[in-house]
C-alpha cells in the first residue's frame, strides 16, 4: 500500500458510512467505494492512523478559521475575510491535518526508557529516515 509505506502518520476523516447510506440515491455508490475496507487495510499496514472529526472541515477556512458556508456543488473555497482561494477538498484536508495535530497534542505522552533493540530498529527504519515526522 502506497500510503502505508510512504507516510509515518496518516489522518483520516471519521466517516459514518451507515449515516451516509441513508441517502438512497447515493447508498450503492458509497458502499461500492469500500471506504471501510480501505480504512481497515490502512490501519493494519500503516505505522500510525488517526481519525479526526469531519465537522465543519470544508466550511471553516484553513488559514483564518472564518466559516464560509457553501453547497456541495461549490468546489472552490473562497474566504472573504483573509482572501484565501483553495480547492474545497484541499482546504478540508488542511483542516484535517491541523485538527489531527491538535488532537495528538492533547493525548497523554507515555514516558518510558527506550531499549537498545528499539533504538536499533529506529535507526534502520526506512520510513522514518525517508519521511521524517510528516511527509507531504
TrEMBL record:
Keywords: DNA-binding. InterPro entries: Cas12f1-like_TNB (IPR010095). GO terms for molecular function: DNA binding. It comes from the Archaea. Pfam families: Cas12f1-like_TNB. Residues 35-95 form the Cas12f1-like TNB domain. This is Transposase, IS605 OrfB family, central region. It comes from Candidatus Nitrososphaera evergladensis SR1. The lineage of its organism: Archaea, Nitrososphaerota, Nitrososphaeria, Nitrososphaerales, Nitrososphaeraceae.
